[in-house]
């Protein structure tokens, strides 16, 4: 086997804190793992789905038993506030609870035939081997959205987690594989992006990967989509977002501000469902902005092991990306930073900061008023703690502004007028709509996914994800004892 090379996952709370060193594999190792998964899959598919469900139930119990340690590791490795990390681990437990039951329900249908003494059926069949490639901002919950249903449906899995969340991924993998899964059914490969691409291409060519699930950037999603298309496969793509929040003239402004604060700055704005732009009715814009800026000034930022709104950015790579976003913001806009803009340091301090800013990758929360539709900040995902604000006159204009960036993941409307809710819902192109609630924070059993630049229309979670990890097989059974030909022998009355 070709040798790999080392990668060090460090903490964004203290960039000198080494969390785990892993060996990154080459493409050939990815293919070898997929081959082994392919060999293991058949026997796993033969296990009755209620029994596979029991294994999923065991996983859920083990995750629950290890929840606090896993949450702490997530916080240390990617800087997510501990309360959110606990929530993330709970999301795995909830996902396991849902799919434990699904093992006893994996229904097919009986369908009437147009001929006598003949019956038609449908069955869900596993796809085979699922290659799952995940980002590190949700290093354990989002992988479980793929891996749990994939396993329940009788598939084997090759999982390539983000390098910068390697320790969280390793801990997740160790828990999952100690719950009674047969050898080779769930596999982990650490690799960089390019080696993963090469490995995936080879594995698709060799016919040992049958479904690709990817959560990450739109740019990488396009490449995955092109690669899968060449191999006649439809991947499950969960990509970026530029999620709008509309605040109408009749909205509860305090509630809207609380929603904007959590959606815009929670997780340091590093959720695919984070708030991008608040689109506020011109009659309440000044008041909304005043309260939003005041709430942002009060928000506690700092060491995520404590009680803070948000901690550091995920990793150096993301901090560099966010610096570039801020450069354009500095040039063009009216900025309402609370105490500053950019990296929080002893020289660029923030009031009430918890911890030592100079050790970690902390940024000021920044509100940019007056973003225009042609601005990069209006059009592109920022993936950091910056929220744009703009105004509208009538709801159709707000809907058009919300759709303009071409993403279509999540959105919100704050209003007390039910008619506006439905006009908004029918006009907006997003896969997920929140009413008087944050754009982020989806529940684990509702379809999750987007349209446009946010994905290819695939949905995860709940029963809807079953269509990603199974394929329909139909069967017809003729017990008439004669050759009955469809269409030709059908009685006409
Ligand atoms: C993501 O950022 O990739 O709705 C997923 C939410 C979370 C999932 C976000 N439950 O914000």
Automatic annotation (TrEMBL):
<dbReference type="InterPro" id="IPR029510">
    <property type="entry name" value="Ald_DH_CS_GLU"/>
</dbReference>
<protein>
    <recommendedName>
        <fullName>aldehyde dehydrogenase (NAD(+))</fullName>
        <ecNumber>1.2.1.3</ecNumber>
    </recommendedName>
</protein>
<feature type="active site">
    <location>
        <position position="238"/>
    </location>
</feature>
<feature type="domain" description="Aldehyde dehydrogenase">
    <location>
        <begin position="8"/>
        <end position="474"/>
    </location>
</feature>
<dbReference type="Pfam" id="PF00171">
    <property type="entry name" value="Aldedh"/>
</dbReference>
<keyword id="KW-0560">Oxidoreductase</keyword>
<dbReference type="InterPro" id="IPR044638">
    <property type="entry name" value="ALDH7A1-like"/>
</dbReference>
<dbReference type="InterPro" id="IPR016162">
    <property type="entry name" value="Ald_DH_N"/>
</dbReference>
<dbReference type="InterPro" id="IPR016161">
    <property type="entry name" value="Ald_DH/histidinol_DH"/>
</dbReference>
<dbReference type="InterPro" id="IPR016163">
    <property type="entry name" value="Ald_DH_C"/>
</dbReference>
<comment type="similarity">
    <text>Belongs to the aldehyde dehydrogenase family.</text>
</comment>
<comment type="subunit">
    <text>Homotetramer.</text>
</comment>
<keyword id="KW-0520">NAD</keyword>
<dbReference type="GO" id="GO:0004029">
    <property type="term" value="F:aldehyde dehydrogenase (NAD+) activity"/>
</dbReference>
<dbReference type="InterPro" id="IPR015590">
    <property type="entry name" value="Aldehyde_DH_dom"/>
</dbReference>
């Amino acid at each position: 086997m070709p040798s790999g090379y080392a990668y060090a996952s460090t903490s964004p709370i203290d960039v000198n804190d080494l969390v785990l060193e892993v060996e990154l594999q080459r493409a050939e190792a990815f293919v070898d793992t997929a081959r082994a998964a392919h060999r293991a899959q058949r026997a796993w598919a033969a296990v009755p789905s209620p029994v596979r469900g029991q294994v999923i139930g065991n996983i859920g119990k083990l995750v629950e038993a290890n929840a606090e340690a896993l949450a702490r590791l997530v916080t240390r490795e990617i800087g997510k506030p501990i309360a959110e990390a606990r929530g993330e681990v709970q999301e795995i437990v909830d996902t396991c609870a849902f799919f434990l039951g699904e093992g006893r329900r994996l229904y097919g249908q009986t369908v009437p035939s147009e001929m006598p003494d003949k019956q038609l059926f449908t069955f869900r069949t596993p796809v085979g081997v699922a290659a799952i490639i995940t980002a590190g901002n949700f290093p354990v919950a989002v992988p479980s959205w793929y891996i749990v249903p994939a396993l329940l449906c009788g598939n084997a899995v090759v999982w390539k987690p983000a390098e910068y969340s390697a320790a969280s991924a390793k801990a997740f993998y160790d828990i999952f594989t100690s719950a009674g899964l047969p050898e080779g059914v769930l596999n982990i490969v650490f690799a960089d992006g390019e080696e993963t691409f090469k490995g995936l291409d080879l594995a698709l060519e060799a016919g040992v990967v049958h479904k690709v699930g990817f959560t990450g950037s739109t740019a990488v999603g396009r490449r995955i989509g092109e690669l899968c298309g060449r191999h006649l496969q439809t991947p499950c793509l969960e990509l970026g977002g530029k999620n709008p929040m509309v605040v109408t003239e009749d909205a509860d402004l305090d509630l809207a501000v609380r929603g904007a604060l959590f959606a815009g700055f929670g997780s340091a704005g590093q959720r695919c469902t984070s708030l991008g732009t608040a689109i506020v009715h011109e009659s309440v814009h000044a008041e909304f902005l005043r309260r939003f800026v005041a709430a942002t000034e009060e928000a506690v930022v700092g060491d995520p092991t404590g009680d803070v709104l948000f901690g550091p950015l995920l990793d150096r790579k993301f901090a560099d990306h966010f610096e570039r976003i801020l450069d354009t913001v500095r040039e063009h806009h009216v900025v309402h930073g609370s105490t500053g803009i950019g990296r929080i340091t002893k020289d660029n301090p923030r009031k009430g900061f918890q911890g030592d800013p100079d050790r970690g990758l902390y940024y000021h929360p920044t509100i940019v008023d007056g973003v225009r539709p042609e601005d990069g900040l209006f059009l592109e995902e920022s993936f950091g703690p910056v929220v744009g604000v703009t105004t509208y006159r009538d709801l159709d204009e707000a809907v058009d502004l919300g759709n303009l960036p071409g993403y279509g993941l999540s959105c919100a409307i704050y209003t007390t007028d039910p008619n506006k809710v439905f006009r908004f819902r029918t006009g907006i192109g997003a896969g997920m709509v929140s009413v008087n609630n944050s754009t982020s924070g989806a529940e684990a059993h509702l379809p999750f996914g987007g349209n446009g630049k946010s994905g290819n229309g695939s949905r995860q979670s709940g029963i809807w994800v079953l269509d990603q990890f199974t394929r329909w097989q139909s069967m017809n059974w003729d017990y008439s004892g004669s050759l009955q030909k469809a269409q030709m022998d059908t009685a006409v009355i």
